[in-house]
Amino acid sequence: MPSNMEFLGVPDAVLMEIGSDMECCRQSLEELGTSIIEACTNAMEHGNSLDDHLPIQVIYEVDDDKVTVTVLDEGPGFDHEHWKPSDELMRQRGRGIQIMREFTDELEFGRHEDGRFLIRMVKNLQPAADDES
Known about the structure:
- The chain is an alpha+beta fold and 133 residues long.
- The chain has a single domain (5-132), classed as 2-Layer Sandwich (Heat Shock Protein 90), CATH 3.30.565.10.
- It is built from 3 helices and 4 strands, in the order ααββαββ.
- 27% of the residues are buried.
């Protein structure tokens, strides 16, 4: 996918399509969708400097009770081990990592075997409530 914000809704739409076949809590999917949008925004903006020629890749792995999503970019990455959340809760920017940590069950930053920077998120899916079926 190009590093263009116009495509930002695509990965979430794919997740919702995947989720439509699963019997899980809609809130779990929405939280993961928000995290995917944050990860893709960071990959496009910070990783690939919004260069349309540098793609990001989103990989979905679906199990019975969890979804793993990996977002890959061409950028240099960042020092995630020393990252600290902002005290300014009302800031409009700079909260993506905090949101991803809050909305996912596992969050990993690192390097893919091909050298690209990756963000891997795992969301354990809760069963759908009776009124969601």
